[in-house]
Amino acid sequence: MSTTKQPWHLVRRSPLHGNGVFAARDIPAGTRIIEYTGARITPEQADERHPANPNDPFHTFYFSLSCGKVIDGGDRGNDARWINHSCAPNCETAENPSGTRVYITALRNIDQGEELFYDYGLVMEGKITKKLRAQYLCLCGHDVCRGTMLALPEKKAAAKKKAKAGKKTVAEAISTPDEETATPREKASSGKKKDKKKDGKKKGKGKKKADKKNDKLAQK
To answer: What InterPro entries does the entry give (predicted)?
Structure first.
């Protein structure tokens, strides 16, 4: 008798956008579904690598950790990078106590076949303009949709303070101070990432930050 456990998730095309991650079986609330993995790099290296695709500078798989490192899910990353964003998520991201690893966990009971989402809550330094909101457009279509994957002003302080899972941060605007062209450094991917999931790029997926409480970028 096999003792191998069936994975909690599977990847397939999402009706929302590009690739998505779905529950392969019923998932109880609080379940640690998958770890967000990829190459561990420094913020400086993240800046040097960005943008992976000059034609789509708002697409990254970065997830910044409280330990100071950044996970580049586009470099040796796993299925977690395909999880899409939603303003009404059923998952969240959370770091381990040392802030060196981040996991996607279930916020509630999730039925088999449901797509998994977490709120990217990207944090951008400076004023959130209409142009920036449009560049990080959210397509979740939920009643509580705020229209963007960015964390709005009233949520920015809390998102930065907690560095919690499920909150992706567009990190300190990469090198360029121009708010209209600044690129995301942070993961806190899956508002929708562009249909370039296959080539390792998610829309609006900057560096995400993990939640100390769990131990989540959605669109492609």
So the answer is: SET2_Histone-Lys_MeTrsfase, SET_dom, SET_dom_sf
- Residue 127 tokens, joined: 């004023």
Residue 35: which H helix or E strand, with range? strand 32-35
User: How many residues make up the chain in this entry?
Assistant: 220
User: Tell me: the pLDDT tens digits for 141-161?
Assistant: 999 999 999 988 765 555 555
| Domains observed in the chain | 9-209 (2.170.270.10)
By CB atoms closer than 10 A (0-12, 13-18, 19+), residue 117 is: buried
Whole-angstrom distance, CA of residue 60 vs CA of residue 62: 6
The span from the CA of 126 to the CA of 10, in Å, is: 37
Residue 45 CB neighbour total at 10 angstroms: 14
* Model confidence at 126: pLDDT above 50: yes
Rounded to whole angstroms, how far apart are CA atoms 86 and 120?
A: 8
Q: Write out the two tokens for 197.
A: 């999931």
Burial call 9-19: b when 16+ CB within 10 Å, e when fewer: bebeebebbbb
- Euclidean distance between CA atoms 84 and 115, whole angstroms: 8
**Residue 217, both tokens:** 């970028």
Top mean pLDDT of 7-16, 57-66, 135-144 is at 7-16
Query: What's the burial of 122, exposed, middle or buried (CB within 10 Å: 0-12/13-18/19+)?
Result: buried
**188 contacts 207 by C-beta, under 8 angstroms:** yes
Residue with tokens 């004023």: 127
CB atoms within 10 A of CB 205: 39
